[in-house]
C-alpha cells in the first residue's frame, strides 16, 4: 500500500548553526522556512531554495553522546535542478568556494563543502560528454564560434 510520501528533507547535525546559516543563506541563497530558538538563538531550522529543503540542528548543550568528526564525512546531499551552472556563477560572484563543475552521469555537478564537511551538490541534466569540465566545455564552445 502506498505511503503517500511527499518529500525527503535531509537533517544535518551542525557544530555552529550561525556559521552554517551564513554558508547556506548568504552563500547559497537559501532562506529560513522554520526555526527554533530555545535559548535566544537559532538552534534548529528548516531552510529552502526553490523546492530543495534541508534541516539542521546543533546538538543540545547537555548532549553526552559522540558525533563523527568531521561531521559530514561520507555524506553527499544532491539537489537536482534545472541549471546547476547558475549557482556556480552566483557562488563565484559571492566569493564562495566552489569546485569546478564537471559532467558526471549526464549531469553538470556543482559541488560545495559546508562548514561541517557535508558535500552539497547541485546537478542538472546535460548532453555534454562525460567527465568534461566547465573550462573544457567553455573552450570548446568558444572554438566553434
Automatic annotation (TrEMBL):
Q: Indicate the segments forming the VOC domain, all copies.
A: 4-125
Q: Name one Pfam family in it.
A: Glyoxalase
Q: Which domain of life is it from?
A: Bacteria
Q: Can you name this protein?
A: Glyoxalase-like domain-containing protein
Q: From which organism does this entry originate?
A: Siphonobacter aquaeclarae
Amino acid at each position: 500500500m502506498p505511503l503517500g510520501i511527499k518529500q525527503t528533507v535531509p537533517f544535518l547535525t551542525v557544530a555552529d548553526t550561525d556559521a552554517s546559516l551564513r554558508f547556506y543563506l548568504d552563500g547559497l541563497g537559501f532562506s529560513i522556512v522554520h526555526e527554533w530558538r530555545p535559548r535566544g538563538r537559532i538552534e534548529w531550522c528548516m531552510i529552502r531554495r526553490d523546492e530543495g529543503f534541508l534541516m539542521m540542528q546543533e546538538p543540545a548543550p547537555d548532549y553526552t553522546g559522540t558525533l563523527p568528526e568531521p561531521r559530514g564525512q561520507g555524506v553527499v546531499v544532491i539537489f537536482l535542478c534545472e541549471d546547476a551552472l547558475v549557482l556556480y556563477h552566483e557562488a563565484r560572484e559571492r566569493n564562495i568556494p566552489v569546485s569546478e563543475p564537471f559532467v558526471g552521469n549526464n549531469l553538470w555537478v556543482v559541488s560545495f563543502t559546508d562548514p561541517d564537511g557535508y558535500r552539497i551538490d547541485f546537478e542538472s541534466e546535460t548532453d555534454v560528454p562525460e567527465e568534461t569540465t566547465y573550462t573544457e566545455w567553455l573552450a570548446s564552445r568558444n572554438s566553434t564560434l
